[in-house]
Amino acid sequence: xxxxxxxxxxxxxxxxxxxxxxxxxxxxxxxxxxxxxxxxxxxxxxxxxxxxxxxxxxxxxxxxxxxxxxxxxxxxxxxxxxxxxxxxxxxxxxxxxxxxxxxxxxxxxxxxxxxxxxxxxxxxxxxxxxxxxxxxxxxxxxxxxxxxxxxxxxxxxxxxxxxxxxxxxxxxxxxxxxxxxxxxxxxxxxxxxxxxxxxxxxxxxxxxxxxxxxxxxxxxxxxxxxxxxxxxxxxxxxxxxxxxxxxxxxxxxxxxxxxxxxxxxxxxxxxxxxxx
Length: 276
What we know:
alpha+beta, Ku70, Chain: A, Domain 2, seven-stranded mixed barrel, two-stranded antiparallel sheet, 9 strands, 25% strand
């Protein structure tokens, strides 16, 4: 597994040399853009709109636009110096917290952590301490010229670093338009919705979920590649046009009932006849 970063983690006087490895991978299918006439790949050139010439890599500088059309130019040696100063810092765990106190909206990228030379015992110590205490460590780290908050936790038998967003990077939920402030649902509607949730509740088994679009796209590509006749996938069942909230909830419950549910003597909900 490729190492993307080397450094060390410390908490108190304990220092653990570690390596980071990307824990997830993007499996999106990359499609190229071709010229329709000759099927040649399209090039994307960097053109200066004022000089109207192609700009070479050595002629490009980076800058920060502090107001519309005005920039502060940053030299490469200045950026490299900042990058080196930050990357050479040890990752210090500054706090320990309970995982459930961190909302998933903060999560960004996940990395596996492996011990570097001579760090096996310290690595095992932190792993066991986190497991026994049911806590995660909060730390700061600089990866690829970007300082980030991170949490350190145990996944199966491996330490994992989860980079998380800073609070000012998470937009305010109160700014989302058209969100109703008060609930106007009836008790009956709420009970029915909870019943539906109960019927659909199961244990999380990640292996049963697949990217259906990616699978269908690969089948299409393979079919065209081998010259086989294309087939039309079976149409997805359309949802009944039920406008009443209670009727929609009841219809959903009826659709999720097991084929042979045991009969129980209790008050039954009125069934809604589905539209054709």
